[in-house]
Design goal:
Distance between the termini: 13 Å
Largest sheet: 3 strands, antiparallel
Structural class: alpha/beta
Order of helices and strands: HEHEHEHEEHHEHEHEHEHEHHHHHH
Length: 326
Amino acid sequence: MSGFLKASALAAMAAFAITTGPADAHADCGQVSITEMNWASASVVTNVAKFVMEQGYGCKVTVVPSDTVPAATSLAENGEPDIATEMWINSAPVYQKLEDEGKVKTIANVLSDGGAEHWLIPKYLADKHPELKTIEGVLANPELVGARFHNCPEGWGCRIVNDSLKQAFDLEGNGIKVFDHGSGETLAGSIAAAYADEKPWFGYYWAPTALLGKYEMVPVDLGPYNDEIHQCNRDTDCNRVGKSPYPSARVVTGVTTAFANREPEVVEMLSKLSFTNQQMGAVLAWKEGNNASSEEAAVHFLTTYNDVWGDWLNTDAKLKLARLLK
């Protein structure tokens, strides 16, 4: 059986087990609500957590579609859902206030590398010309990167920062023309096209994504991070732009204090549930390549990375999942 068919079959089996199991199947845990943010990696995280909670800990999980700010607002106003995962807390000051007030607990960095934004070159280019791994090397050799910088589309937050950085590094003065993409699809397509023929490419992208799970890219070192400069670079009214890379964004799982007190074993598991950007990128690439659902991608992760998730679970839950996923 192919990996995709196995993931599909196991996802269906798990759903059947939850809906048709014995009456006391959820006696160990009970009702649990968890966010499912509206982007691919967050959906995979939620479905991995849901699968593990249901199959390993006997929970009955309700998924709540959401986004970062609405999830934080719901926690503030309603004290729910129980679990908010893949919270990009730099985008949700309300969440940080709730944590300070003791209403929520941050229990894990669910993306252990943090959300990453970089100026990048393909690995094959970095291997051939290692000097391009620094911005100084790129500016000294514009022809080696195709004399072009692939920029974000208009309306994206990264476009503001990149437009500041292109001035700070004087890209065009150093022989590098800035190409403003009209959509995320054309930006992604430019990386795929470059990889197909191992052509030069230099520009912006972020992780974790299916694209960077499929195509290995190397960050260009823009120098030391400076928060004051970065904050200015992202402010269209600031006229003191400067040189600073993007910061790593902290991406967490938070739970309500009430849930932490009620379900300490589940919280202990969730405190260990974490993905590297490489792991998540590989799962997203598999999901996209197989036109799979998030549920199937979650099962693919669990059947492929058992050496990772095995350390998250207590002994009983680990045995239950091992029997189902064998």
